[in-house]
Write a structure and sequence with these properties.
With 556 residues, this protein is mostly helical. 72% of the residues lie in helices and 3% in strands. Among the domains are: 480-515; 518-556, no CATH class. The chain has helices at residues 2-20, 46-69, 76-95, 99-117, 123-150, 169-182, 191-194, 200-206, 211-221, 231-249, 255-275, 279-306, 319-322, 324-338, 344-358, 363-389, 406-428, 439-442, 444-461, 463-467, 473-479, 484-515, 517-535, 539-555, and strands at 24-33, 36-44. β1 and β2 form a beta hairpin. It is elongated, with a radius of gyration of 30 Å.
């Protein structure tokens, strides 16, 4: 209730600040060092307050949801403290226009995400957590380099950058590249599906409003400074990320991994809108995506909980009879994700597509954008078919139930927000110029969505034929995210392990073994044995030594 109350309060406060064009800037000088002031800075404006209100609302829902989902967990208090650390780190990142305090929140997100990904203590979780934290460390290093470069200007605050964007091209480039790591754009995409090893409430919080959106939010915050001179690179990477994630989700059978790939696709769409300079529209889609993606993960978690941890969608089906409320939430969140008219995703997603049609873009970028949009609708309807429409494969093998009702209650608010909040925010906050397009371009988005829905049903019906193909290299490439997991881990570890083995075999087990402690121990042990043999009071040894000495005297 505390989270929900503060969320409502911050939301109304952000609307007041938006209407009054009012913001507050607090600066506290901690100490001065070499003519550089180390300040603790907080910036309260409508963007930060509105985003934090959404974070708190989703966090409150996830905390309430975890009470039933993590039933029987011995270390439940530790789990709750880790989630609270996640929310605190995100709050520090949201309110800070200072690079140093941003790094504290940024690094806090990476550390807590590692602790949560390895929460289920097995080798798979350990591998996923290591990949997650090492990928995010790349972004941490880039922000550290930006902090070092900003020493030249004597201030680390974004506000101090106003009017100096020409001299800060290196810093903006480092921060934009750091945001690519946290938002999992190509080539840093492998960690996002791997992070699904975490418990489902963590996935709901991470993929909606905290970890993966931190990079997008940072570029949105740079909006008034960053002059988007890297927009071609951002556009290429974001469109490729959207296409790769959509293609992979169409051939994936792990429920949580499909939803993770859908997050990757939507992050690519946000980064694409940022590459066009549409900062406010990207923020709008970021807020809407947080709502329906949290609902999607929580409803999927209810289904996984009912199946006692089973995540393969091929063994599921007919949810509308066994779990009617949860399947309704699941369908609503999926339709909002696909941009179904008059749901939350429709107002932001279609706006990005139509504004990109009005811009001066090349044909290939537009083609890839709309193809990725069609793939989004395809894997969404494929997921709905597998989960809700299709007959249950293992009928009668398990007893499905909606649980105590806590998980259902935590989904109710998100359902209402996913239905109504898109229209509400677009009426109250968005100030977009009129979209003027010819009829064929205006209907292009709807046509692509309809074709994508048919494609999703076709893939679902032909899944058996796809799996029986002898030459399934295409499906293998699309299902393995273009080999990015292998490229992210194996090349980076192969050379160090090989060099380490050579050093160990030549050094620790080679010359150092012979000349080091073990070799000296063996030599001294053998010498002491010989001395001990001589020191034994034996007549035979005494006579032998005497004869040797006599022979030596005679001949020498």
């Amino acid at each position: 209730m505390l989270f929900f109350t503060f969320s409502l309060l911050l939301f109304f406060l952000s609307l007041i600040m938006f209407n009054l064009s009012f913001s507050m800037y607090f600066s506290w000088n901690i100490f001065s060092w070499s003519s550089t002031d180390i300040n603790m800075i907080f910036l309260f404006d409508w963007v930060s307050l509105m985003f934090l209100s959404f974070v708190l609302f989703i966090s409150g829902s996830v905390f309430y949801y975890s009470g039933e989902y993590m039933e029987g967990e011995i270390n439940l208090s530790r789990f709750i403290f880790l989630l609270a650390g996640f929310v605190g780190s995100m709050g520090l990142l949201i309110f800070s226009p200072n690079l140093i305090s941003i790094l504290l929140g940024w690094d806090g997100l990476g550390l807590v995400s590692y602790c949560l990904v390895i929460y289920y203590q097995n080798y798979k979780s350990l591998n996923a957590g290591t990949l997650t934290v090492l990928s995010n460390r790349v972004g941490d290093v880039l922000i550290l380099l930006g902090i070092v470069w900003m020493i030249n200007f004597g201030d680390w605050s974004f506000v101090a950058w106003l009017g100096k964007s020409e001299s800060l091209l290196l810093t903006t480039a480092l921060i934009v590249l750091a945001s690519l790591t946290k938002s999992a754009q190509i080539p840093f995409s492998a960690w996002l599906p791997a992070a699904m090893a975490a418990p489902t409430p963590v996935s709901s919080l991470v993929h909606s409003s905290t970890l993966v959106t931190a990079g997008i939010y940072l570029v949105i915050r740079l909006g008034w400074v960053y002059d988007f001179w890297m927009n071609e690179l951002l556009m290429i990477l974001s469109v490729l990320t959207m296409f790769m994630a959509g293609l992979g989700a169409c051939f994936e059978f792990d429920l949580k991994k499909i939803i993770a790939l859908s997050t990757l696709s939507q992050l690519g769409l946000m980064m694409y809108s940022l590459s066009l300079g549409m900062v406010k529209v990207a923020l709008f889609h970021l807020l809407m995506h947080a709502l329906f993606k949290a609902l999607l993960f929580m409803s999927a978690g209810c289904i996984i909980h009912g199946f006692k941890g089973w995540q393969d969608i091929r063994m599921m089906g007919n949810m509308m009879l066994s779990l009617p409320f949860i399947s309704s939430c699941f369908v609503v969140s999926n339709l909002a994700l696909s941009g179904m008219p008059f749901l939350a995703g429709f107002y932001s997603k279609d706006l990005i597509l139509e504004l990109s049609l009005m811009g001066e873009l090349n044909l290939l970028s537009l083609f890839m954008l709309f193809l990725s949009t069609g793939l989004t609708v395809a894997y969404t309807f494929r997921l709905i078919y597998y989960m809700v429409r299709r007959d249950y494969v293992l009928s009668g093998s398990s007893n499905l139930s909606d649980g105590w009702g806590i998980m259902m209650k935590s989904c109710m608010g998100l359902v209402l927000f996913s239905v109504f909040f898109g229209a509400l925010i677009s009426w109250m906050v968005m100030e977009v110029e009129s979209v003027i397009l010819p009829t064929n371009l205006k209907n292009l988005t709807l046509s692509v969505c309809i074709l994508g829905a048919f494609l999703g049903f076709f893939i679902s019906q032909s899944a058996y034929n796809f799996s029986k193909m002898k030459f399934s290299l295409y499906i293998w490439i699309s299902g393995s995210m273009w080999f990015l997991p292998y490229l992210s881990s194996q090349p980076l570890t192969h050379s160090p392990f090989k060099i380490g083995y050579q050093i160990a075999s030549l050094g620790d087990m080679g010359w150092l073994e012979l000349l080091g402690g073990q070799g000296m121990n063996s030599y001294i042990f053998q010498l002491s044995q010989k001395i001990q043999l001589l020191s034994m009071n034996s007549v035979k040894v005494f006579i032998l030594i005497s004869w040797i000495l006599i022979i030596m005297v005679m001949f020498f």
